[in-house]
């Protein structure tokens, strides 16, 4: 007998990447009960079509918040079979906090970590002052790495004589952040990643601003791959801000099939 169909184990998915929706949809099809956490109402919209137990909206800021959610689930039912971390590779604080709380509460925990794209046409930056290793004076550089890192990057770029441009996501936090940065308003593009496979909008920006190179994060996924393809076909440079090191001593998977195998093994135990 399929144990999932008998007791319907409950999973808590914390999502911040495109894989979150895909994983949730597939796990539901396989008989799991799912609660999803997202950071904003906008991020919750794709999940409204799914038959979820609950959608939790808002950034989890403390160990206490995470602990309360896990303990409340135990009080109201049998608790979460597993907590699955599908947050962004650069959102290291939430991963560390989740891991710590789950260990304290003896809660099964799995982190999905996107595999790194090993593509040779990009330069890797451990930190932004590594840009000084390149002759960027009077170069037009497009920053596509999120507002959290933008102002720090702009400081180094300005010292190197770079003309800076930025593409940021069309959400309130990103818009507020970029408008409060040191960038000229004419050098800002606010849009979500292109839905087309060849990045028509991004290519148009590169041509409009005569971009010499792009800087984005080594986050994996469609956005990074899109910039690899654009920079390669347009003959411009690409720099990647290196992904933060993995949190030590946590259970990691890098694909859906491996995740399901681990969940199944926990079910049998």
Care to describe what's here?
- Helices cover 39% and strands 20% of the residues.
- It is α/β, with parallel strands linked by helices.
- It has a six-stranded parallel sheet with strand order 3-2-1-4-5-12, with helices on both faces. The protein has a six-stranded parallel sheet with strand order 6-11-10-7-8-9, sandwiched between helices.
- Strand 8, helix 7 and strand 9 (188-190) form a beta-alpha-beta unit.
- Helix 6 packs parallel to helix 7.
- The protein is elongated and about 60 Å long.
- The relative contact order is 0.14.
- Helix content, binned percent: 25-40%
- Give the overall average pLDDT: 88
Radius of gyration: 21 Å
Strand content: 15-25%
Structural class: alpha/beta
Largest β sheet strand count, sense and barrel closure: 6 strands, parallel
Low-confidence stretches: 1-6
- Number of strand segments: 12
Cα(first) to Cα(last) distance is 15 Å
What would the principal axes of the Cα set say about the shape?
Answer: elongated
Figure out the total of helices: 10
> What is the H/E string?
HEHEHEHEHEEEHEHEHEHEEH
């Amino acid at each position: 007998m399929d144990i999932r169909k008998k007791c319907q184990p409950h999973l808590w998915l914390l999502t911040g990447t495109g894989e979150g929706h895909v994983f949730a949809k597939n796990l539901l099809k396989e008989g799991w009960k799912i609660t999803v956490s997202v950071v904003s109402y906008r991020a919750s919209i794709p999940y409204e079509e799914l038959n979820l137990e609950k959608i939790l909206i808002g950034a989890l800021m403390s160990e206490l918040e995470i602990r309360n959610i896990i303990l409340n689930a135990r009080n109201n039912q049998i608790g979460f079979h597993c907590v699955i971390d599908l947050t962004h590779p650069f959102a290291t604080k939430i991963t560390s906090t989740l891991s710590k709380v789950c260990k304290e509460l003896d809660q099964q925990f799995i982190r999905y970590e996107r595999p790194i794209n090993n593509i040779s046409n990009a330069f890797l930056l451990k930190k932004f002052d590594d840009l000084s290793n390149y002759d960027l004076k009077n170069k037009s550089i497009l920053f596509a790495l999120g507002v959290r890192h933008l102002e720090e990057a702009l400081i180094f770029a300005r010292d190197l004589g770079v003309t800076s441009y930025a593409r940021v996501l069309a959400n309130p936090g990103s818009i507020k952040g970029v408008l409060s940065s040191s960038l000229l308003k004419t050098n800002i593009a606010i849009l979500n990643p292109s839905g087309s496979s060849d990045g028509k909008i991004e290519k148009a920006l590169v041509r409009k601003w005569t971009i010499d190179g792009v800087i984005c994060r080594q986050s994996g996924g469609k956005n990074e791959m899109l910039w690899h393809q654009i920079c390669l076909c347009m003959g411009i440079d690409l720099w990647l801000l290196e992904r933060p090191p993995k949190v030590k001593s946590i259970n990691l998977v890098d694909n859906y099939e491996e995740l399901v195998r681990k969940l199944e093994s926990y079910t049998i135990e």
